[in-house]
Design brief:
Helix 3 crosses helix 6. A 5-stranded mixed sheet has the order 3-4-5-6-7, with helices on both faces. A two-stranded antiparallel ribbon has the order 1-2. The chain is α/β, with parallel strands linked by helices. It has 6 helices and 7 strands, in the order H-H-E-E-H-E-E-E-H-E-H-E-H. The protein folds into 2 domains: 54 residues, no CATH class; 145 residues, Restriction Endonuclease.
Length: 212
């Protein structure tokens, strides 16, 4: 996670950011008294203009950092959405459960006193050069679910609990929305509900919602 993600998720009730920054410096062994303790986390950043990102000190530096940070923003977004709506955030299921149809970046269950809310999440990093091609895969997944339900088979734990017909697909991109929106509309025969945001839009909302 990055400094901004930790600040929003863990220190969101603080009126200033000093406590967050001090705590992270201490845990990473970069406090006022450097090397005063064995670091519990490690940190790095892509440039001096960007926030640090952190990982456990007993692990090697993770691969695909940019993608991992993007997926983390999805979870920060869902967590803030739950807090703002009074829902309880529950993480259920692993992305690999939905193979061979699709491997989502995220899947969460939010439960309120009114109804459950289910979301699949996708982070599209425009700089990778890869196109967003997940809609046919999600269509295959949900079509399979529909067919199994018709046979009285419950393919996933959430199928009988969901209140909406199909979970919402939340897509976050670092690039322009127009090409992805075109695919969300034109490659969507089942009418999968979706939400499309740029990463900057999502960050702005998370910051606004985390204000004390």
């Amino acid at each position: 996670m990055t400094t901004d993600q930790i600040r929003i998720s863990v220190f969101k009730m603080q009126k200033n950011d000093d406590m967050c920054y001090r705590r992270l410096r201490v845990l990473s062994g970069n406090g006022i008294k450097k090397k005063q303790k064995t670091p519990r986390i490690k940190r790095d950043r892509f440039s001096k203009y960007e926030p640090y990102f952190y990982w456990p000190a007993d692990m090697k530096r993770p691969d695909q950092i940019e993608h991992r940070i993007g997926v983390n923003w999805l979870y920060v977004w869902f967590e803030n959405w739950a807090t703002r709506t009074g829902a309880e955030l529950k993480f259920k299921g692993e992305p690999k459960e939905y193979e061979p149809f699709v491997r989502p970046d995220a899947f969460v269950s939010l439960r309120s006193s009114v109804k459950p809310h289910l979301f699949f999440g996708e982070f599209h990093r425009h700089e990778s050069g890869n196109e967003f091609d997940k809609m046919p895969k999600y269509t295959s997944l949900f079509q399979n679910i529909i067919e199994l339900k018709a046979q009285g088979i419950r393919p996933y734990w959430w199928v009988e609990l969901r209140d909406q017909k199909i979970p919402t697909l939340t897509v976050i991109t670092t690039g322009p929305k127009k090409p992805i929106l075109k695919r969300l509309v034109n490659e969507n025969p089942l009418g999968i509900p979706y939400e499309l945001l740029t990463l900057d839009e999502l960050k702005e909302r998370c910051v606004q919602w985390a204000q004390p």
